[in-house]
């Protein structure tokens, strides 16, 4: 059901960041197409590529879909006051999943966006805090996993500023809460992976 060229940051479910495709070595003709970023938006996430070689670019508040020639197919935008998408989105079974958090507020939103039309399938508002590091959401086995923490306030930890220490699991079909798992350490730039056996792997800042 995956069948995408690049469905999440790191590519595969194992996050091996490799591809069987050979990149061109002659760049004398320049790029095939360029998105000029006319609004000068921050882009901190990996582009996503579906089975038709359509490219999805996520900024802090917008997601755009381009065809393989660079033509804009649709644009989606976070609602006013819903914060920024600081976690990298993911493609799964015809849906693009995204996550936004409002800085210094105990509010976050999960989104499911139709890959074909750009229409929002569902949105869930949650009273949780999610730190603004370079985390990635993960969708596996019908479950959307997002980075959160089990406390709202900042508190000192070894290594500096507090961050996410919790995985929150939502149903990929409707966004309903399934479970939460709080680790005993901070997970900087959380990027879950799986060997495909029904488990997920992660590391904390202590290694």
Task: Kindly describe this structure.
This is Pyrrolo-quinoline quinone repeat domain-containing protein. Residues 1-10 have a biased composition (Basic residues). With 207 residues, the chain is an all-beta fold. It has a domain at 48-182: Lipocalin (Beta Barrel). 0% of the residues lie in helices and 30% in strands. It has strands at residues 48-49, 55-58, 62-66, 72-77, 90-92, 95-101, 108-114, 120-126, 138-140, 143-148, 166-171, 177-182. It has a four-stranded antiparallel β-sheet with strand order 1-2-3-4, with no helix packed on it. A four-stranded antiparallel β-sheet has the order 5-6-7-8, with no helix packed on it. It has a four-stranded antiparallel β-sheet with strand order 9-10-11-12, with no helix packed on it. It is globular, with a radius of gyration of 17 Å.
